[in-house]
Design goal:
three-stranded parallel β-sheet; globular; 355 residues; five-stranded parallel β-sheet; TIM Barrel; alpha/beta
Length: 355
């Protein structure tokens, strides 16, 4: 039986064949390794905080090759460069995830690909256990297989949860077909990180300048996914789920009161499944990363969901932000406890990271 111990090896071996790349599997900057600077230590009111980045990407070219995909060599960011960037920004631990590109794969290929990726993730984390943890990949197009893969990844490989897309081949995460996966995630008590993908249903209206399929489409995908999970009763059926939504939860926390108003104004539209709470109340049982760009937006997110539900994200290596730590430290109106929670305390508890 394969165990996590089987993958413990040297840093060089673990980093071989890994590409630290962004949300679209390309376009990050390659640079030659430089001497590592002294790690920035983050302090809140005199107390050292272990910072945890829940939104950081990587990929393995040999796994992508199984789907006929490849990483542009210019997109590679090797291990030393990543550690250097983490040290400069004050990121102690990254939770690595791979955006799903395998939802069209048949069952046998999906099984092979996921096994390869999860074993490589485990090896990488075992080589640098003080700097990396990881979310497992799962073949969610086959929910029973995804549940099996998640169980193996958590129990045998030491991965800390799963990373999934905001939909699966046009099917919503709230569809009952996915209940076996959600049941397993609840049973394991592990975190599920939902990261949106380019949705082909949006392409016609979002084509043109501005990269709208990403800028608008990605947060919209998350908004739709979470809304269905609320309204279709998924969060009631599996109340112990631990879900973290990328990009501050999309647009949902910014306009969630309309969901409550909709059920009040048009109660017949909310009666197909009797949810147990107001839609906005479910936001306080979800988690959200901090990628919302301004202090005003972060304060609003805190108001809507609570500081205890926000965890830090960078979206590394995409340069959306290189100031995630300072974004939290410099936002006015937060308590020291709020800042410590968002910087790492909450994520450490969710991901089983020791202080």
């Amino acid at each position: 039986m394969t165990t996590r111990r089987d993958f413990i090896g040297g840093m060089t071996g673990a980093m071989a064949g890994v590409a630290f790349i962004g949300c679209e599997l390309m376009n990050s900057t390659h640079a030659h390794a430089q001497p590592a600077p002294r790690r920035r230590e983050v302090v809140v009111n005199g107390h050292r905080v272990k910072t945890v980045d829940v939104h950081a990407h990587c990929a393995f070219p040999d796994a992508m090759a199984l789907m006929g995909l490849k990483v542009n060599p210019e997109a590679l960011v090797m291990g030393a460069e990543r550690i250097k960037a983490m040290d400069e920004q004050g990121i102690d631990v990254e939770a690595l995830s791979i955006n799903a590109f395998w939802y069209k794969a048949d069952r046998d290929l999906a099984r092979q690909l996921i096994k390869l990726q999860n074993e490589k993730l485990a090896a990488l984390c075992a080589a640098q256990p003080d700097r990396f943890v990881a979310f497992a990949s799962v073949a969610l197009q086959y929910p029973d297989l995804a549940a099996e893969q998640l169980d193996d990844a958590v129990k045998k490989l030491g991965l800390r949860g799963a990373a999934i897309g905001g939909s699966v081949n046009g099917e919503e995460l709230a569809d009952p077909k996915f209940h076996p996966f959600w049941a397993k995630a609840e049973e394991l008590g592990c975190l599920v990180f939902i990261h949106p993908q380019a949705n082909p249903d949006f392409e016609k209206r979002l084509k043109g300048n501005g990269g709208l399929i990403n800028v608008i489409g990605n947060p919209l995908e998350t908004t739709i996914a979470l809304s269905h999970m609320i309204y279709e009763g998924t969060l009631d059926r599996f109340p112990g789920l631990k879900i973290c939504a990328a990009h501050g939860g999309g647009y949902l926390p910014s306009y969630a009161a309309r969901s409550d108003a909709g059920c009040t104004t048009f109660p017949e539209r909310c009666s197909a499944v009797q949810i147990k709470k107001k839609p906005t109340e479910y936001l306080r049982q979800l988690y959200f990363d901090s990628i919302v760009f301004t202090s005003q937006a972060l304060r609003h997110l805190v108001t809507e969901v609570g500081a205890s539900q926000i965890v830090m994200g960078t979206d590394y290596p995409f340069p959306w932000t290189k100031t995630s730590v300072d974004h939290i430290l410099n936002t006015p109106g937060l308590s020291d406890a709020d800042r410590a929670a968002m910087l790492g305390d909450t994520a450490a508890k969710l991901l089983g990271i020791k202080s």
